[in-house]
Structure formats: C-alpha cells, structure tokens
Fold these 2 entries.
Entry 1:
Amino acid sequence: MHNTISLTTGTKPPQGLSPFDETTALSSPHERPGPCLDELFIEVGYYQEKKHGQGAAGDVFLSKKTSDGHLISVLSDGLGSGIKAGVLATLTATMAIQFVAEDIPIQRAARIIMKTLPVCKERNISYATFTIVDIDGMNRVRIIEYDNPPYVLIRQSVECEPIKKMLLIHRRGVPRESLPEPFANARMYYSAFEALPGDRLIFFSDGIPQSGMGSAPFPLGWGNPAVHSYIQKEIAEKPDISARELAQHLVFRALLHDGYRPFDDITCGVIYFRKPRKLLVLSGPPIDSNRDRELADLFARFPGKKIVCGGTTATIIGRELGRPVRVCLKDIDPEVPPASAMEGADLVTEGIITLGKVAELLEQGPRFDRFRANAALRLVEFLLDSDHIDFVVGTKINEAHQDPSMPVELEIRRNIVKRIASLLEERYLKKTTIRFI
Amino acid sequence: MKELPMYQHKTVKVVVCSGTACYVMGGSELLLLDDHIPSRWKGHVELEGSPCLGFCKNKTQGKAPFAIVDGEVLSEATIPGILKKIEEKLGET
C-alpha cells in the first residue's frame, strides 16, 4: 500500500498522473501493483435533478461493473432538455457503457460515438456530450471527456490536475473547410492516472456551473472555479463524506442557486476510492433453533454496522444476548411497521413488509421521499451508505404467513433478499454476500 | 369530598404486537391506541410495542393481531376490544 503520496498543487501533474498512452498503459498491466487492492472499494454515487417543468431528465448517468473487474461510469448530457435530450443522452451513455464493457479501448469507443451521434443542423454541435470513466481492476483510471465541464480529481483534499491529451475528431456530415475549426472538429480530452486510496473523482453536467445564471449573486452562473472550491470545502469539512452525499450536496447547492426551479438538468457523479464500510443484515430465524446461538454470535462479533430485520429474529437475538428490544412508537407510518431499538444494533425492523418496501425503494432509484422517517427508508439509507453488505438469512418458514387470509405481498424471505442484493450489486455497485442459516 | 375512582391507584399495561402477521391483520391500527384512550384514563394506561409476541406460531392462541392487556392475551384484537378490556381491568364496569 502506498503510504506516502506526494502532493502537487497547481498545474504540475502529481505522481501517478501522466497522460500515458492507452497502448503503453495496456501493455504493462502487471508492472506496478495497485494500491492495496483488497482493501479498496470504489464507491460510485450520483444525484440528479430535472429541469423545472420537465417530466424526464435530459442528463443520463450510468455505471456498470463488468465481470473482468472494470468499473465504467458515463455521464451524458443531451442537447436541450426533456425527453428528446433524455433519449440522446441515453443512447450515448448506453453505447459508451457497452463499448467499454466489450473491451473496445475508450478512445476508440469515443470516436465511434462521435461519428454516430447526430449533429444539430442549426447549431452545428452534437446532440449529446459525455464523460466516460473506465477503471480497471488495478485501479487505473482512463477518462475521456467531450464538452462536459472538466472533471475534478481530489487527492488528500487537494485538487490535482492530470495532463489531458486533446483528440480532434472530424464531425460527420460537416464539410471540413466550410466552418471555422472549433465547429468542424470536435475536441475530446483524454487523461489517465492511477488511483490511490482516498481519491475522489467528481464530474457533473453544465447545470452545476451554470446554476444561478442571471441572478444577482451569479450573473454568469456559479462558475467552475467556485464549484471546485465548494467541493474542496465540503471535503475539508467532512473528510470521510461518501460519494453519494457529496453528489447530493453539490446538486442541492446548484438547486439553491436556481431558486429550486432548475434552469437545466443538474447531474453530479462522484467516484470515491475508499476503505469499505461493512454492514450486516440479519433476517429470519434459523431453520434449526439449535443455531439461534450461532446467529446471535454472528451478530455480536461482526465488525461494522448491524441491522436486524424481523420481529422473531430480533426476539431471538435479544433473548440470546440478554438485551431488551423496544419498539419505538414515535414514528408510526401507515405503510411500514415501526422500528425497534436494541443495544448493539444500528437498526431493528420488522421483516417481510419492510424488506418488500426496501426493494421497491431501491428500484425507484436515488430519488425518494427523504422527509419521511419510516424503517424502510432508514434501512435503505444504511444500505446505500455501506460498501460490503453481508446478508444472513434464516430459512425457517413462519406458518402464520402461509394463511390464505394473509395478503399475497408477503413474499418468501429468500427471494426478496436475493432481489435486494442483486439490485444493490447491479444498480448501486455494492458488494454483497448472502448466507442461509 | 368525592371518592376517587378505584383505578386511580392502578396502571394497566398494554403490549401490542407489531410483527408481520399482526401488522397486516390490523395491528398497525392498534399501535395508535394512545389516540383513543379517554382523557380520564391518562396516566393509567401504558402502551408498549413488541417486535413479535410469537403467538401467531401457535394456532391454539387464536388469530392475529394479538395484544396483551394486563397479562391477558387478546386475539383478533381491535381498538374497541382493547378499550373494553382496559375498562374491565381498571374496574370501571
């Protein structure tokens, strides 16, 4: 593990940041070991607000983990707003994700996209911009940017400026000589560096630097320099701020500048190379009651945050460890049973109804009612604020739930936990394990 | 001076189950019992939730939702049913 990180501010590239060529970078994959690979988790978080009055977002943020250990994130901003912009941005982002996932080098993928994208006849600019981030299993990062605000790399709370290589691409359907250079050729910027523990990569759509445009405090918008210093301030105030939280804070700030009626779609993505935060979720009584003690020991010994989902499960653990479980009757929600409190547990909830609601919330995406405080919302917060999540699922069937007079929504625990875990893996790029007991 | 009612010296403890089976069968309503307690009983009824009382696993106990009023188990509990039982326990009837 690299314990010493040399710091450079200003325009000089810090160690490990070099505009190395894609081919040379790929030819020597085993020369330098990545910084403490087992202990590093790449957290990807994003937040988005639609332009005021629009039904669909014109920005698209997609992320994917491939089977060969690559993590790919794309932010695309479609020209204009609403559904048309959304379709073009989705097209761009999906192409980028698929190409890079299929091992097409990032620069070539960008070229193909540029040649495919339609060009606006009136403005002679492309219909969508993009930032493609490709991180391999050795934590080497390659980024290609086209027309989005430049990304920000924060290393040990200092902003670093990697050297970027400009790539000129001739635009499809635009006669070479008929237009001044910036219109005939698209400029993309390629950069590459090796990520170190604690690095944060922040990229956003122009809705953020342009927020507040025309207002008295920001006649020309918030502006990139101010955005960068805001990011640094946020990190200085809370050095372990999660990717999800930082993305949210930036978007909320931009929203504030726009008076909560955004003039454009606002999207921010953050990638944080962090030590994994661990979470244990216990749900369901063991098939054999002789294993109750084992379950309680698992709970007591786990190094990290702990959540118990299920009344019977909580009763078992409480009994085995001699800790009372008290239901909090303060926040009664019409849809979700109340949470309880037990010493050593970060959260105790009811089982199947709450887990069903959690799956529903995770499917809805990063926007949900954050002003309510029911047990399912709190559980979702814990899941999203963790990186490695271990589910331990008891497989004993509660006969009372099999009564035909019970609502059919009472699903089988195993299925619902599997659904939650796969949502967390695929949609939120978490690492999960499920054990049955 | 008017004689104090007998229940002024007594507190009745009500435990409501908030486990899955009880919750879907109407237990969610029972957790709001506090809103239905007449003012003259205030201070004499103690409401508590339980993550699961475990009665749903035993068919002989009756059907969900369950509540315990002063140590006595009520099955298919309703707000009026619990109030009636509290009244009984307080010695009003």
Entry 2:
Amino acid sequence: MNGKKNKYWLDSSSNVRKLVYGLYALCAALMLLDFFYHKHIYFPFENWFGFFAWFGFIACVILVLLAKQMRKVVKRNEDYYGDH
Amino acid sequence: MITDLNPALILILGALLIPALKASLRTTYVLLLPVLSFLQLYPLPAGSRTEVEVLGMLLSTLHLDKLSFMFAVIFHIAAFILMLYSLHSRDRLQQMVSLVYAGCALGVVLAGDLVTLFIYWEAAAISSVFLIWARRTQASYRAGMRYLIVQVISGLLLLSGIILHARASGSIELTQLDLGTAGGLLIFLAFGIKCAFPLLHNWLVDAYPQATVTGTVVLSAFTTKMAVYALATTFYGAEILIWIGLLMAAFPIFYAVIENDLRRVLTYSMINQLGFMVVGIGIGTELALNGTAAHAFADILFKGLLFMSMGAVLLRTGRINGSDLGGLYKSMPYTTVFCVIGAASISAFPLFSAFVTKSMIMEAAGLEGYTFTWLVLLFASAGVFHHAGIKIPYFAFFAHDSGIRCKEAPTSMLVAMAVAATFSMCIGIFPQTLYALLPYQTDYQPYTTTHVITQLQLLFFSALAFTWLVRQGLYPPELRSVNLDADWLYRKPGRWLAQYAVRAVVASEQQVIVWVKRLSFDVGVRLHRHHGPQGLLARTWPTGSMVLWVAFLLGIYLIFYYVY
C-alpha cells in the first residue's frame, strides 16, 4: 500500500497547499481587478470596493455558522422516524 | 407527423408496450419513443390547438404557445437523457413508468384548459410514485405513501379550485387567474404544493431521496417544472410570489449545509433554484419570465446531471451519505468531471448555463429596483455555490479518502451525463440558441466585463470562505442524522393526533350505537322535514358541488388510510 500512497497528485498535502495558495492568489487578483474597470450597476452599494467579494465571503461564513447552530435544534438520530 | 395526435399520448401509450418487449429491442425502443414524440411536436405551428368534446365540455387537449413549446422541448430532451441513463437497469417497469410520467408532464404543459391540465396533473402524480416504490424498501414504501397523499391533496385542491373558478367565471380556459377569488386561491395552493412552496415543500425533500437510482433523476425533471410552467401561465406578476420565491431561495440552503444524504442536499438545492424561478414569475416582466423559462430549462439539465452523478455513486458504492464517501475521483474519474460540470453550471460560472439564465432573473430584479429581493438572491447565489457547487463534489469525490474503490459508472450512464453536460455548456457558451426558444424576444447580454468579474469575485470568495472554514475546523462535519423539517408536523404530532382520534372512535363504539338508536327516531322526523316533498335538500344539486364533496371525502379517506 505504501508504494501506492502518493499515486494521485492530490494525495500529497504539499500539492493541496499549492491549490489553496493558488486560490488565495486568484482571490487577491480578482479583488484588485476592481481598480481597472467601470462597473455597470443597478444599486449604489455595488460600487463599494470589492462588494461582491466581501458579500460572497461573509454570506458563506454566516450561512455555515448559522446552519451549525441550527443543528442544535433540528438534529435527531437517524432512526428518529422509525423507518430509516 | 400524424394529424391531431397529441405527442404526450405517443409517450404514454407507447410506454405501455415496454414490458412486452425483448431486452434487445427495448433499448432501441425506449430511446426512439421520445424522438418520435418530438417529431410529432416539432412541426406543429405556434398557436395550434386541438379540441375534443367530452361530456358536453370543450377541452383543448393541446394548445401550443412559445412557453409551452419551450417546456415541451426540454421535457423531450430530459426524457431522452433519462432513458439513456436507465439502460443499465433491467427494471422494465421503471422504464415504462418513467415514460408514462414524462408523457403526463408533457400533457400538462401542452394542455389548453384547466380540466385537461388537471387530468394529466393527477396522472403524473400517480405514475410518479412507482419510481419511489421501485426501490422496494420499507422506508421507500412509506415515503411513497406520504408522497402520494400530498400529491393527491394537490390534485383535490386543483379540482375544487377549477370547479369554483368555472362556476364563478363560466370558463375553464388556461389563462391568468385572480388570487382574490376562492377558485384562484385553491388552484394557487395546488400549484404551490407541487412547486414546493415553504411549508408545503416537504414531500419533495422526504420522498425524492428514497427513490431508485434513476427514479430520483426522473422525478427531479418533471413535477416541479410543470408546476413552474403552470404558475407562469396563470399567476405571473402576482407580487406574493416574489416573497414566496425569496423564502424558497434562501431558507433551504441552511438545511443543505447540514444534511448528510447527498441526494437530499440536492433536493434542498432544487427548492433553492425553484425559488429563483418563482421570484421571476412574481416580478412578471418579459425579462423576468424569460429568465424563469430559461432557468427552468437549464435547471432540468444541470440538476439532472448532479442527480445522475450521485445516482452513479449510489449504484457503484451502495452509499450516498457524505459521512461514508470521499476520494471517489480515483475510482470514478469521468463521473467526477461530469459532477463538477453540473456544479459549475448550477453555481453560474461564466461559460456554464446558469450564468446566463439565473442572471436574467437577477437583472430583472435589478431593473425593477427591487433592492431587498436582489440582495437575497445574491445571498442565495453564493449559498448555492457553497452547498451544491462545492459540498456535493467535495464530499463525494474528494475530502478524506474513504478507502472505497469501485468501478466507474456504466457506459450508458456516462453517455447520459455527457449529453446533459454538453447541453449545460452550450447554453453557457452560445446563449443565442436558447434565446430562440424563449417566450419573449431578448437581446440580453450576459458576457459584460462587470458581470463576469463580479460573478467570479462572488464565487471565488465563497470558495475562499469554504476553504477557510474547513481548514479552521469550523465547517460542520457530515454526521449520520435526520434534520427536523416541516414534515415533522404530520409525521409526529399529526400522526399521534390521528391515531388518538381513531382509537377514541373505536373505543366509544358501544356508546355510539346507543346514541344512534336514540337519535334515529329524531332523524326520521328531520329527514322528512328536509327531504320530504317540501324539503330544502330534496332539490336537485349541481354536479359541481357533488364533485366537491366527493373530493373532500376522498381527502378524509386518504388521511385515514395513512394513519393505518
């Protein structure tokens, strides 16, 4: 098994780290792009610097953290209804 | 092309022959049927109408306008892809039921009046339940029963609504209806159940994940989309739909984050996408309705693709819980690629379908100045990428290696996924081809600098949030569990109450007999008063109200059936 362990590119944690850094770099680049074009907008707040970037990040963090809290109320055992 | 033959009947009647065919012939036959039906549909001129007189009513069994044509086209494409996908299975009954169900859904979108719509509506409900029962487990049997009851209630509401509407307006034409009338409201609720409105949605989340590998994919294509069509035809511009749609777009994504069964995650994301369509119907402008139609078209393909990839995983590994899966890209590389294409399409990446179709609805909201609506939809867009775009492929194919090694999906399944993936990308790359089918003319430009960059910012920063949460250990782990949802009301307290009521009635049977004897004399006197020669109830009653009472009794009967 040991010989096969690193058969796939993603099995190596240094490669995963490369991907993550790649994502950071891409995000930074996308954010900076906001300096270089004229936005066509419907609402004034869209003109805030990196509005869509901030919105996407914060929306997802709130979504996940709230959903995690929701588990306290709605989570039950798998056989709760007796037919699973 | 045969004059006056409804394409829906080709599918329905043609499907009935399937069980009688030999395996070698069946493969060709099931693929040919949707093609034949399409060839029957395609040459029909816009505005063509077929009318039949039944029991003194003039029914338009087929009325073709641009919207119904568009839905009919995508239903054919879906039926063809689904048949491809089902070829690996030897279950002929499932193939038959799938095509009958597809034909009924086609009948709904082609119907020119409410009565024809109702007939196909009910037939679709009844035929579809067999796709759940075909899993042949106790859990799927019970889920199918609950599903059927909800579907039949939708049918009863629809029937009652149609009767009231017809009596009030004297017309059964399929046209814009008024929510302010009793008939209109009942019809609205009937459509709302099938469209998975908030609190009426649970049949979908409950039953779809219990269906077979192919069954879930088939179910995902038709029922909810015919409801979208029905709402778009009758209640466009009804402002309440904006609010309902927003709830649908925003709320289910929280459940999707903590749900473990990956096919159930997809049902939550289905409601989220339906939310966008319902908002579009509520806005009701030409651009919004175009967006709704286009997004329904695209959704059938990419949601079908995602369900197909999860079906392949279930078929090969026998598991579908995120907590059991991971690392499958090593065993199922093609399925992984197709799943990622489906994920990119639903997330609205540039070059993929929803980048064009969902944006039309967003743009319509922006142009009308609906700030709050637009913001909620933007939140839902980030959320959909998070749970359907990342979570589904990540937990099934990547994440930690579960150690499962299995075969790649069967070739027929891969071909079906390839076709759906190709369509999804074609819509994204060549939107003009889709525009030709839309109900209204449009020159909407999705590929502007602003749109491409802002969308990429939204998506990549959502991905960044996911990465950060996972690496910080903040992301909720996949756990074996069920999450309470609105179905709790009828699966727990509703059930206790009904059982209690039935037991109470049985226990007091003796007492009741005494009462009955004592009362019977009284009743005789009253009966004479009401039903005698001068009696109020001795008058003739319109058939309509009789049907209404029969519908009511059927409903009661169903509830009792469920309890036992």
